[in-house]
Structures are given as C-alpha cells and as structure tokens.
Inverse folding.
C-alpha cells in the first residue's frame, strides 16, 4: 500500500489529540511521511470529533474521504464513520453495548468492512485505568493491525506521559493488552511499505510554521483578539515569548489589535495581527488608514466558513474577495495566500518585506485547513529570505532628509520612509489627504497627483512579485487546474498519484493573489485546452477574476463549500470522470 | 487664578529655551474658529514640552478626528493623524514599540467617550507609557455641533433639537473608577494651569490621562468661558490635598455644578507601566524598534524534529 489512512473518532475530551500525537510521532520515527488533521465542533466537551492520519513512503499533503481503518472510541465514532471506510477496510471499536447489534453488522457487511471488537473499557478498568484509557487499549490493537513493532509505540507513549509516571505505567499496560489481546485471534495485517531510511523532516502545522516565519524575520510586537482558527498563532507566539522577547498582547478587540500594529509599524517595529473573516471585517477601516498614510501593515486572515459566525472550526477559501476589496477608498495592497507549512513559513516573511518596502497593507490569507493540519515537511531554511525594510538608516541621509521626501511623487510610487525620532526632519503621517510633506490639502491638483503616486505602487508591486507556478506536466496535460491556498496540497498529491496511471495533469498555483499576474493565466489557457478551476468556496472567486482578466472560460469548476477541505480521492474521481486512464 | 509671580518665572525659563519653543511653531495656516480652546491648549502643550526639555523630533503625536485633529500638521514634531476614536490604540502600539520617544495622543469627547471608549478603558488598565489629552468641549464641533456624551442634559443641539435627553458623563470621574495611575483636569482658559498639568503628565511613566475642559465658542453655548470661570477651583485650594488618595480624588470630581477642581487629581507614580510589567522582557533593555532582525528559531524547531 502506498498510502494508508487511519481515522480515530470519538467525543471531544476523549484524548483524541494525545492518541493522534503518539501515532504520528511513532510513524515519523519509522520513516513515514504523513498528514494529520482533525475535525471538531465549536464546543469544549462532547460532540463528535475525529483525527485523521494518512501516511506513506512518499510525501502526503492531503487527506482522503475514505480511510483504511477507523478506530471508534465511542458510539458516535462508531456509527458515523463506518461508511467512511474503504471496501475491505477495518473498524476497530471497544464499545461493548454496540458489539454485534444488527445495525452495525448490516452496515459492516454492506460496506465490506471487517469489524474488530475488544472490550476495551473493561480491559482498561481491570488494569486500574479510567474509561478514557480505552484509547490506549485500542491504540495497541491498531498497532498490531498495522503490523508494526510494539516497542516503537511504547517509546512514544513514554515520551508523551513521562511527566505522569503513575498514569504512564497503566497506559503501557493498556497498550500491551490491546496489542496482545487473545480475543482477537488471527489478524490479516496490512501490507504497508516502509522507507529504508528515516528522512529528516519536521512534523508541524501551518499555525506554528507561519508563527516561526514571522518570529524568524523580526516580528517584535504581536497583538490579537482570539478568534478561531487564528487563535493558535497567539497561543504559539505567547508560549515562545520568553525565548524570543516578543511583546505579545491580547487586546480588547480587533480594532485595537490592528491599530496597535499600525502604531508599532509606524514607530519602526515589525508587528502583525491575525484573525478570521469576522474580526477582519472590524479592521477594515484601519486597512484604509494604512493605505493613505503609507504605513506598513500585516494582517493574517485564518479563513473559516461564513457568513457571520458560520462554522468556526471548519475550513474554506471564502474570503479572497474580502481581502481584495475590503476597506473604503482606493489604495494599493497585496494579498498573499498560504497553501501549506513551507509556504506559511516563507510567505509571512515576504509579507513583511512587501509591507515595509511598498508601505502598504498586506493581507495574508490562510485557512483552517492550512493552519491546523500537521504534515512531515523538509526542514525550514533559516536566513534564506533577506529582511528588506525599505527604511532610510544611513546617518548622512537621515540628516539631509526633508519632510517633502516622505511622500515625494516618485516614478515607482515608493517614497522614503524613516523611523520617527531617527531624523531631526520630522514629517506628518496624515489620514486626511495630504501633500508630499504630509500637510493636509484639498487642492484638486495635489489630490490627483498624490492618488496617482500611491496607485503607482500597485503597478511596481505587480511587476516585482513572483510569477505563479505551474506544477505537474509541462505540456500535453489531459486536464489542467488553476487554484490558490490549500488546493495546492491536494493537487500535488493527485498529480503524483495519477501520473502512474498515465494521466497527465498540471496545476497553476497562485501564492500572490493580488495583484494578479494574469499574463501567466492567459498563457496557461493558451497552452492547455482543458482548464478547470479548483476552489473551496461557492462562487469560484479566483475563477471569476481569472475569467474576466483573461477572457477565457473554465471547462469546469470543482467547487466545495461545506466546511470540508478537498479530499484526495474526491479530486481523483473528479478527474477520472473527465479523463480516461491510459494504464 | 494663577499667581502673577509664578507666571514670570515660567516666562523667564521659556525665554531661555525659546530656540526649542520655536521649533514647535509651523507656518501652516490654523483653521480653528476665533476664541477656540485649541489655541491655548496647543500653546500650553508647547510650553510644557519646551520646559521639560523635549525636542520636537523626539515626540510622536497621535491625533484623532475633529477640530483638534485638524491641528495635526500645525505643530512641530512627528505626527500621525489617524481614525476617529482610535488615537489611543495606535499611540499605544507606538509607545510599546519605542518607549524612547514621547508619545502623546489626543482626542475629543466624541472620540473618547463614545466611538472609542473601550480603548480608553483598556489603555488605563494596561497603563501604556503615554500621555492622553481629552479635549472635552461638550459637543461634536467639526461635524457642526451635535451632542456628545458630555453635552449637558436638555440643551438643544444639531441632531437633537429638543434637547439631549440623557445625562452627561463626567469623564474624569469615569476614569477614576478605573484605578488610573495618573488623572488630571484643566481648563482651556487657563494656560498656566494647563502647562503645569501637562508638565506633570509628561513626567509620568505610565498612562497619563489629562482632561481639558475646552470652550467651543461656535457650538457650545451651554458652557462658555464665563461659565467655567465662575466654577473652576484648584486642588491647591483644598487644604492638605494630596493626589495619592483615590477615594478622596473621586470625591472632589463628583461635583460638576459648583466646584470644578483643576490640577493633578490622582497619581500613583510608583506603579510599573505596561512595558515594565512584561514578564518576558524583565532583562531586556532595548526597544522593540531596535530589535528587528533575524531571530534564530533553532531551539524552537527541536519540538518538531
């Protein structure tokens, strides 16, 4: 098997996260690549949650809809997820009251699912454990089904619970009991291919990747108001603040957060905030202020489905147009979209450079799917992206500045910027329309020339941002896609998978979604005849921009708007319906 | 009223530092009405800054929207003219990032007591190292005289012709309820007292709240200059008044009808400000703005290997 998918299902508070953590660490030490994500409702206890782990010998970047194994920790996990198991797959459960009930048996038979039952609750209790330790017993059984050595697992359990030696003893007993349970009898173990060497990887999510990118590139002031799915950034930057010395402040609302970022950036620091769509709505007037005062600004939007509160703990790509069109008046901006851990680490660094050099607001889009999904990735390279601040720092130059340099009408639109207090020559940063030295003006000619100067920055920016990247086959694509954000992860997996079947796919991916480099898309449409859109929203927002900018039409649109990310197998089947396998 | 010999000393000191004072002057045409309280407030602020030895290039002013905000390009120094109600938050971000420059924010009664009252509350709680000047002229001047949260009840204003039906807020009384580290009040008719209050605010290391009762000759006919002169008194008029007692401070600001006391009403000069309180920066002497550079993440990555 190239790719194995396991789902652990149960209620929130049943230790899903710790079991997911143990499995993934153990798999990592065995040399597997993997991706892990969790689905959970917006509540603290109860409700139906699950953790899905998908692993293999090649990179795994996305998850599948259908899995090989479900481990059900409770009743909801049992009945809800039996239909998400592939034919010939396995259901592991320890819920005695539901063993052999007709409903379960019928479903299992209908779907060709093998059911493995162990009285896990009784076993856990007999070993002195609590009912939560059902998870450890079933984990032991899972490990046996996977055909792995129990010692790898024991090592991880030791690591996870070393601070609680009493519980650790019982946990180890539970795992052992599950692994060796006689009740199960002979098991047909899965045939899982292993890597000969353990690759050097990081197992990390997008939240921490983005935070680390920001920390690495000189973030010094972080302000935020909690909002899912962006709260994890506050958690991580605060948790590591003794190591980094960063000023971290949870403030009274989103308007304060963005205003404090503007204040810190204006004072000459590197600062940012992160929120979700609703919080960003509150910030938009300040985005406009950043535009006219030419104050660098970096805002991260962790997208979740709206409108209003929508689905706080689920995913989407619904806020592209929000990021592009938000805030009153006309001013240049950049919108950048993270697609995975590596891009989160790198793009946030570019976001700071663009915000500071161009003196504009930069909106960094990410998604619940990107923020919370863990994957094994190549280790980050430090100092690979230069820090560009666009500040006057030379002493002599600082002495010779005049106030009129600050908003001078340059060809590029970019004027000199210097830190308040660094030069005797002060300037006014004015949210009212102003002339070159920042003094207020309502003179028609001055207003026109200042607007044109600012808007020239967008043209300069568009010329300087990187081109979108074509992944997959260079030519003769049977089917092509255009997309942004987390769609990249599923597309890369699908391109690799179907290549073996002789299906040639390519995918044009936009990291920089505004300004849009439409010439790359025009060329892509010209060279590829079967171009489809993949987007996790209702309207196909990037698609609408693409069609209007290129004058071309997509042959089809793969859209999804139910709070779930694109699954590997559903994209594969979208393609299979349209392209014949040549194998 | 100010004692005459005190004023002389002040002017002597000022004349010695007139070089600095003149740097705060600009050639921009001022757009305030004749008799506007802003002239005196700006004048007193320039005097206080000069007397305390601040050069304009080491000051960062944050202005709100309103008549006072239109003075953002009419004073020497780095200025930032931001959004309505948000001057305090932007200023807080600046002073936290760079405590080495003096950050002074100002806003009117509309911005401070309505649009952005949450920012005032939490800036006091957090004790950001900055000065905040509330220009309280009891109305929205720049939008042509609508009622604010401090307009006296019953007065007809643009937008409420039958008279305001809610009771007014008393800003400094509200602020004292939040346990501030510094709260003072002065009056735009009294340059001497304003200068004195501003000087003390500039020396305070935490969030220095200064309410200026400001006349608005164009739209506020309820509380004109003479109304104030009939009522204002000084904390020095109260026998043995010390500004270190919050309970007493609350008592002397309750009355806004007969005795309106001016001066530093309350100050806790020993309290640690926001920056000093940060647990992760106890041994750090640099400012955030001096620290922007690559930060090694070597140790942090261990967790993910």
């Amino acid at each position: 098997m190239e790719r194995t998918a396991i789902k652990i299902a149960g209620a929130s508070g049943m230790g899903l996260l710790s079991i997911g953590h143990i499995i993934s660490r153990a798999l990592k030490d065995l040399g597997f690549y993997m991706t892990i994500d969790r689905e959970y409702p917006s509540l603290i206890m109860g409700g139906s949650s699950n953790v899905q782990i998908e692993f293999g010998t090649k990179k795994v970047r996305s998850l599948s809809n259908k899995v090989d194994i479900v481990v059900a920790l409770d009743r909801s996990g049992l009945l809800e997820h039996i239909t998400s198991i592939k034919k010939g797959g396995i259901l592991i459960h320890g819920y005695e009251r539901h063993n052999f009930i007709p409903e379960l048996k019928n479903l299992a038979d209908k779907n060709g699912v093998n059911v493995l039952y162990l009285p896990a609750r009784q076993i856990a209790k007999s070993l002195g454990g609590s009912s939560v330790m059902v998870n450890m017993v079933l984990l032991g059984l899972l490990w046996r089904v996977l055909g792995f050595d129990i010692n790898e697992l024991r090592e991880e359990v030791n690591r996870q619970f070393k601070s609680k030696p009493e519980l650790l003893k019982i946990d180890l007993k539970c795992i052992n009991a599950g692994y060796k349970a006689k009740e199960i009898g002979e098991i047909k173990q899965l045939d899982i291919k292993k890597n000969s060497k353990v690759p050097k990887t990081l197992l990390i999510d997008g939240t921490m990747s983005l935070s680390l990118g920001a920390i690495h590139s000189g973030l010094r002031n972080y302000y935020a108001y909690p909002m899912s799915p962006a709260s994890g950034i506050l958690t991580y930057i605060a948790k590591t603040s003794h190591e980094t010395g960063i000023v971290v402040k949870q403030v009274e609302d989103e308007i304060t957060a963005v205003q404090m970022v503007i204040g810190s950036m204006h004072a000459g620091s590197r600062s940012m905030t992160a929120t979700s769509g609703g919080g960003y709505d509150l910030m938009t007037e300040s985005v406009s202020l950043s535009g006219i005062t030419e104050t660098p600004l970096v805002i991260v939007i962790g997208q979740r489905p709206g409108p209003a509160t929508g689905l706080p703990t689920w995913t989407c790509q619904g806020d592209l147009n929000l990021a592009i069109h938000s805030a009153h008046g006309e001013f240049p901006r950049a919108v950048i979209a993270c697609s995975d851990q590596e891009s989160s680490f790198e793009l946030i660094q570019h976001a700071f450079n663009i915000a500071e050099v161009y003196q504009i607001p930069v909106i960094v889009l990410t998604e619940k799917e990107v923020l919370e999904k863990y994957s094994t990735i190549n280790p980050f390279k430090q100092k690979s992206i230069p820090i560009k601040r666009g500040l006057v720092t030379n002493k002599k130059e600082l002495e010779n500045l005049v106030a009129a340099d600050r908003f001078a009408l340059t060809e590029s639109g970019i004027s000199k910027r210097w830190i308040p207090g660094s030069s005797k020559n002060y300037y006014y940063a004015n949210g009212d329309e102003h002339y070159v030295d920042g003094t207020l003006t309502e003179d028609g000619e001055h207003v026109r020339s200042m607007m044109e100067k600012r808007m020239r920055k967008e043209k300069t920016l568009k010329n300087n941002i990187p081109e979108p990247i074509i992944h997959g086959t260079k030519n003769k694509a049977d089917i092509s896609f255009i997309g942004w954000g987390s769609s990249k992860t599923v597309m890369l997996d699908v391109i690799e998978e179907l290549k073996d079947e002789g299906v040639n796919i390519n995918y044009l991916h936009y990291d920089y979604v505004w300004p849009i480099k439409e010439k790359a898309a025009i060329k892509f449409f010209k060279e590829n005849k079967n171009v489809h859109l993949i987007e996790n929203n209702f309207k196909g927002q990037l698609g609408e921009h693409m069609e209007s900018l290129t004058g071309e039409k997509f042959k089809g649109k793969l859209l999804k708007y139910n709070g779930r990310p694109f699954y590997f197998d559903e994209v594969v089947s979208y393609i299979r319906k349209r392209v014949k396998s040549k194998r | 009223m100010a004692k005459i010999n005190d004023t002389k000393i002040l002017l002597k000191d000022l004349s010695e530092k007139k070089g600095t004072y003149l740097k705060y002057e600009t050639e921009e045409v001022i757009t305030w009405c004749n008799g506007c309280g802003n002239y005196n407030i700006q004048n007193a602020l320039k005097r206080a800054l000069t007397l305390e030895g601040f050069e304009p290039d080491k000051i960062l002013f944050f202005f709100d929207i309103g008549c006072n905000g239109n003075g953002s390009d009419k004073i020497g120094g780095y200025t930032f003219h931001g959004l309505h109600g948000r001057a305090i938050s932007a200023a807080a971000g600046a002073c936290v990032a760079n405590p080495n420059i003096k950050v002074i924010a100002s806003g009117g009664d509309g911005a401070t007591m309505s649009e952005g009252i949450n920012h005032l509350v939490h800036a006091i709680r957090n004790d950001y190292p900055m000065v905040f000047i509330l220009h309280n002229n009891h109305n929205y001047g720049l939008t042509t005289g609508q009622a604010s949260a401090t307009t006296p009840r019953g007065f007809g204003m643009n937008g409420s012709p039958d008279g305001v039906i809610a009771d007014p807020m008393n800003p400094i009384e509200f602020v004292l309820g939040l346990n501030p580290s510094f709260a003072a009040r002065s009056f735009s008719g009294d340059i001497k007292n304003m200068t004195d209050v501003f000087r003390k605010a500039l020396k305070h290391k935490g969030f220095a709240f200064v309410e200026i009762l400001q006349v608005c000759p164009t739209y506020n006919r309820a509380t004109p200059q003479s109304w104030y002169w009939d009522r204002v008194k000084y904390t020095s008029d109260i026998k043995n008044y010390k500004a270190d007692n919050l309970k007493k401070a609350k008592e002397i600001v309750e009355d806004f009808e007969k005795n309106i006391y001016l001066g530093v009403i309350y100050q806790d000069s020993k309290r640690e400000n926001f920056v000093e309180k940060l647990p992760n920066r106890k041994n750090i002497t640099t400012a955030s703005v001096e620290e922007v550079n690559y930060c090694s993440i070597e140790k942090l990555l261990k967790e993910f290997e």
Observations:
- The domain at 469-576 of chain A is CATH 3.40.50.920 (Rossmann fold).
